[in-house]
Specification:
The structure holds three protein chains of three kinds.
Chain A: H1 3-22, H2 26-46, H3 50-75, H4 87-110, H5 112-115, H6 128-137, H7 141-166
Helix pairs in contact in A: 1-2, 2-3
Chain B: H1 3-38, H2 54-64, H3 75-91, E1 101-102, E2 105-106, H4 115-136, H5 140-163, H6 165-171, H7 176-186, H8 200-223, H9 235-238, H10 248-273, H11 289-314, H12 322-350
Helix pairs in contact in B: 1-10, 1-11, 2-10, 3-4, 3-10, 4-5, 5-8, 5-12, 6-12, 8-10, 8-12, 10-11
Chain C: H1 2-29, H2 59-88, H3 94-115
Classes of the chains: A mainly alpha, B mainly alpha, C mainly alpha.
Chain lengths: 167, 353, 123
């Protein structure tokens, strides 16, 4: 993968990821998250994982974030007033983030699989959509059906919750 | 990565954009003339011979209008929204094969292996332009228009996504150039039996394909917010919908985006169902650059024919009510598209060639 | 890989460039007008704007967006299925039936939503 593009999109992701947290305006936060997803999708695509990359945009940017925008508008959230930064929460948050970072470094250092280079998707004979399909309907058929049940539960949950509001 | 490749890519992009903008400008002119024809009026006929320079005058007018930003809007997002509305429409054109080859260069900008998903993914981003326009305008009509429109677009995206699956059941690849290649070998999707009349398998397959085609086409009507699905900007209810507060080129970009989305939609219908750049009896670009140009011409002729149908429908049918629209999308088309997929799958499974 | 990727980025770049330059040209060429208090008000058919600028809207829109995500997931799973269908169906019919059962499970939720009137906008 081209290192320049990697650094470019990684930088975009970091900047807009930070913007999600920093922005006072909830809509601006949501839109920053969309850009962040686009960066992620570009990273996937540059690893030749076209399917996963496009699904990132289709499902997360195109569907989930639209719902977020709707909810923000529905709740009529106003731009937060400039408030004083709570020092304890700020330091605590930084500490948690730092701990997580150290932990990831530790895992990468200890786990053999994390250091091993995987064969690139480009070398594969078939494209990734094909591979996903083959695996999904042979090895992972039962998990696939269980996902169906999960989505069913979510559907019923949505209807039950919003019907209560409607009445 | 060589410079020749970069150069040809850039040349293709600029040429495609020029052609699409040209078609778009004359589509606006054609729309006004056709609507006039249908309503027994004359339409624009003063600028140049038969009004042919009208698009140029329109473009100049957009540029010369006062560029006004009302004080009650959220300025940054107010400016961002028109760009967001039009960029996705142009971007989706990148994966559509608009010709065979010209001097050995394939006439598609980026032939990625998830072509059709790319189209849907980018098209689903078109919602943002409308939602943000509605929200940033800080005014009632745009807000209602934006919410309505985005709701309508996501609803019809379902039918759009489901309707094309039978095509890919047959082709077995998501790459759009492969879809065209398949149609060259096996006949166009909506009429695979042409030239192979005695083949029962192909006659059977034509049924789900025809249903797919109709559902897809209607879903594209809804996605591009054209009548009979133009509720987001229903003049009688919402003034102008999400672009009520816009003027000059900012409105122009919404307008442009809408027409380019119509062209893109037609291009995708042509690619998926009507054989792309293929026409029986015309060889591809490997037989000389003249044929390559003819292929491109055939493609854009088909697109133009579809655009005419878009206009014909717009000036013939009245608008739906919002509850009818949602019911149609979520109940009627959703179910038909779903059943249609399994119809195609069962034909492939139990009536093999 | 890059052969597919770079033209795509170029194309997006050209699209953004076009949009930005169109807006820029309009700013530069556009006639300067006067700013008045009335011109700055939100458009409400010539009346003085009343009430909140962003009215509350029905929870139905939220419901539609949520249901859209759920059924979008279903469609996403159908694409890999469509791609491998033709070659897997030759070996066994399992691939057809497993998708049929997946969709049937989801349709239970769909029928429930339909019966509860979640997709009915008249009420």
């Amino acid at each position: 993968m081209s290192p320049i593009l990697f650094w470019l999109f990684a930088f975009v992701m970091l900047v807009f990821g930070a913007a999600v947290v920093i922005n006072r305006n909830p809509i601006a936060s949501a839109l920053s998250l969309v850009v962040c997803f686009m960066g992620l999708s570009a990273l996937f695509i540059s690893l030749d994982a076209f399917f996963i990359g496009i699904i990132q945009v289709l499902v997360y940017a195109g569907a989930v974030m639209v719902l977020f925008l709707f909810i923000i508008m529905l709740l009529d959230l106003r731009v937060e007033e400039r408030r004083k930064i709570n020092l304890v929460a700020f330091v605590g948050g930084l500490a948690v983030a730092f701990a997580l970072f150290v932990q990831i470094c530790f895992v990468v250092d200890q786990l053999g699989a994390a250091k091993q280079a995987f064969p690139s998707l480009r070398a594969a004979k078939m494209d990734d959509v094909h591979n996903v399909g083959l695996l999904l309907f042979t090895n992972y058929n039962l998990p696939f059906q269980i996902i169906g049940v999960l989505v069913l539960v979510a559907t019923i949950g949505v209807v039950v919750l919003s019907k209560r509001e409607l009445r | 990565m060589d410079y020749y490749f970069l150069f040809t890519s850039l040349a293709k992009i600029v040429a495609l954009l020029a052609v699409v903008l040209g078609i778009m400008n004359y589509a606006v002119y054609a729309e006004r003339r056709i609507s006039a024809l249908i309503q027994d009026r004359l339409g624009p006929n003063r600028v140049g011979p038969a009004g042919l320079f009208q698009p140029i005058a329109d473009a100049a007018k957009f540029l010369l209008k006062e560029d006004f930003t009302p004080r009650h809007v959220n300025t940054f997002y107010y400016w961002l929204a028109p760009c967001l509305a039009m960029i996705p429409a142009i971007t989706t054109l990148a994966v559509v094969p608009f010709g065979s080859t010209l001097f050995g260069v394939p006439m598609v900008i980026a032939d990625i292996n998830v072509g059709v998903l790319f189209v849907f993914a980018i098209a689903s981003l078109g919602v943002y332009g409308i939602v943000i326009a509605g929200w940033s305008s800080n005014s009632k009509y745009p807000f209602l228009g934006g919410v309505r429109s985005s709701s309508q677009m996501i609803s019809y995206e379902l039918s759009l996504g489901l309707a094309v699956i039978p095509v890919f059941l047959l082709v077995g690849q998501l790459r759009l150039t492969e879809v065209v290649r398949y149609q060259i070998e096996h006949g166009w999707m909506i009429a695979p039996f042409i030239g192979d009349w005695a083949n029962l398998h192909k006659w059977l397959l034509a049924i789900p394909m025809l249903i797919s085609f109709v559902v897809f086409m209607i879903a594209i009507f809804a996605e591009t917010n054209r009548l009979p699905f133009d509720l987001p900007e229903a003049e009688t209810e919402l003034v102008g919908g999400y672009h009520t507060e816009y003027g000059s080129m900012k409105f122009g970009l919404f307008f442009l985006g809408e027409y380019i989305a119509m062209i893109t939609g037609s291009a995708i219908i042509v690619t998926l169902f009507l054989g792309g750049w293929h026409f029986p009896g015309i060889p591809d670009g490997s037989h000389g650059w003249g044929w390559g140009l003819v292929n491109i011409f055939v493609f854009f002729s088909k697109v133009a024919a579809l655009i005419f149908i878009f206009m014909w429908v717009r000036w013939t049918l009245p608008r739906f009510r919002y509850d009818q629209l949602m019911r149609l999308g979520w109940v009627f088309f959703f179910e038909i598209a779903l059943v249609n997929i399994f119809l195609a799958a069962i034909i492939l499974a139990y009536f093999p060639q | 890989m890059l052969r597919d990727y770079v033209p795509l980025l170029l194309h997006i770049g050209v699209a953004i460039g076009f949009a930005v330059s169109a807006l820029l040209m309009s700013v530069l060429l556009g006639k300067a007008g006067r700013r008045t208090r009335v011109k700055d008000t939100a458009y409400e058919c010539g009346m003085v704007p009343q009430g909140e600028t962003q009215p509350r809207f029905s929870v139905k829109f939220y419901l539609v967006a949520m249901l859209f995500i759920l059924f979008d997931l279903e469609i996403v799973f159908m694409y890999p299925w469509a791609v491998v269908y033709k070659e897997m169906i030759v070996e066994s019919k399992l691939v057809l039936w497993s998708m049929l059962s997946f969709v049937t499970i989801l349709m239970i939720g769909y029928v429930y939503a339909l019966k509860k009137g979640a997709l009915d906008w008249k009420r």
